[in-house]
Request: fold
Amino acid sequence: MTRVSPRGALLLSAAAIALVSGQACAQSAAAPANAQDRDDKEIVVTATKRPEAVRDISGSVTAHTGEQLEKLGADSMADYLTRTPGVVFNPSTPGGGNVTIRGVSTTTGQESGQATTGIFINDVPLTDPAFSIGTPDIDTFDVDNVAVLRGPQGTLFGSSSLGGAVNYQAAKPDLDRIGARGQATLRDTRQGATGGAGKVMLNAPIVEGKLGVRGVFVYRRDAGYFDNLGTGRSDVGRTRTYSGRILATWRAGESTTFNYLYLEQRQDTDDVGYQLPGLGELRKSSSLPEPASYSTLIHQLRLDQDLSFATLTATATRHKKSFSYTSDMTEALSPALFGLAPVSNFGAGTSKGETFEIRLASAPGGSFEYLFGAMYDRTAMKQGQNIYAAGLADLLDVAGPGLGLPAGAGQQLAPGDLLVNAQFPATARELALFGEGSYRLGDQWKVTLGGRLFEQRLTNASDAYGTFVLLTQGSYTQTTSDTRRFSGFSPKASLTWTPGEDLMVYALASKGYRFGGSNLITFPGVPASYDSDSLWNYEIGTRADFLDRKLLLDLTGFYIDWSNIQLKRKAAGIDYADNAGDARIFGVEASVTLRPTRWLNLSTNLTYLDAKLSKTFDPDPSDPSDTIFPKGTRLPGAAKWQVSNTLSYDLADAALAPSFVLAHRYVSRSPSQLEGTTSQGGYSLFDARAGVNFGPFGATVFIENIGDKRGIATSAVVPPIQQYIVRPRTIGITLDVKL
Reply:
């Protein structure tokens, strides 16, 4: 299959739209008024911290419902974020990927400080304040919806949501009837192994209409498709996902509801799968396996109290994330260690804390609507690593006297060949008052003003010992600590014009921010700390419905002014952050949905993005060897073009209720790092699914990546350069039962 160019991808979308649009015009007069009712129910999300229909929100929001995700066969972020306008998902180790919205990022990997995209589960913030302990990628089985909020969400959602936020909403219990669902999938990957999944949901009303429980359990095995030449193992990269959640609802009275959520997920990867350039297709080489594990745990209690004039909502949450990994750092460090090999890195980290929030939202429908509240979050983090270089102790015994070390210093300074043991604890606290008010000026105009007053405190520490510390710092141990405080106000304003039920136009200005912090390494040229960065987002958007809601159009143009950017850099192989000047980003996002008949649906999403540094940044003018980032440098992962198309045909009323889905995704080429020559993207993927139903039973066959492309989803410079490749052609079958 030939490569699809940006122009080809656009023509493909335009041709499909024109074809189905013609059918829509021809059939609209004869179609019954309720032709699209089955697919046209309002999607309600909490993007504004209150239940609100997506198409009534004055902002850029895309909601993927559980039904839509099921039709696409989506399990994880890579399956649905890549179909969302303005969003790039940069995969790496499962559970440790990176989400970039509207190009707001300086790396396609993990930031040195706080990430630029907020990740939320039932409104619980899971973006770490100091350094990343992973990106929770919760399986989407039995999900209510996953809402992607584009543009900064600092007013209502707080720090880290510079580019936007992803909010995962679990399905609530049905208090009136028993329900169950089971799903089994078997899939085979070309040049890889066989994988599969088993998923089950049980809904049970304990007291009808009053108390109910909904439980979900998922086991998924994603097959590996890489060969590790160093260890001699084939089909590495296998990941096992164990995911479970329980959501209990107690309707204590006509106006009082309690919800409790327990959610836990763990992803274990046997040997991280990536491709090394020069070794051949889907091949890596490491001197030892590189396993990794990421986990997420949430306990949340929520109260919703109807006060007639408003709803009071209070939440109390405990959250915990953790990871562990092993990596081969031979290529990166062996040359500086006189050729010692292998060099092994063992790392682990945790992030745990409590989040409390209380808010009051007015009853909908009045000329003045408001929401205000307060939140408190305290998160304790710890990240550590142990690096070992085989033969280091013996080398120090021999070379120690020449370095001024006593005889026999090897076992004293490098027990077990330890090069360095480093621990990086951090404690963050955030307090905020937030609010938003909307006033309707007649039937057509609405003005909204909002803001968030916040105060943050972050304490970073470093406790390291080992030969590496001795040789670079002059002492065997080093302990440092620093506390930084930040405060400010994040405003938001919008003006909405709604001349009728089929058209809405809005203008929006909003600000986002994130934590600053300290660099706890003392190399020349490395700043002691880095400041918070912030950005302003200006956008104009419209939502329009045509042909009796058979044609839906969302169109948004935006401009982002990003200042005092936090840039991830390295010194002696250690990450640190520096504030790296300014950037300007502008783009256009469009979503078109065509429904000419009740059986046929075509959706197209298109994004054009131009994200670049707006002025030259020279970190150290006195050092001619330092990297200079010239004006016009493109931001990493900021693909200029993104296109996704989905054609679905669903004969729900026919015998066996056959359905068919054909999906296409295109992402143009973009740099993977701000400093470096690696790139990613520049490929198209096609998927197809066909299914039938036998009463409560269903069967779906599918083929993913029909053209068997080897697209580079992201590249990491460790070194060596690690290329994460999209999954090769995969065929499979899913069996489903709903009771």
About this structure: Residues 14-41 have pLDDT under 50 and may be disordered.
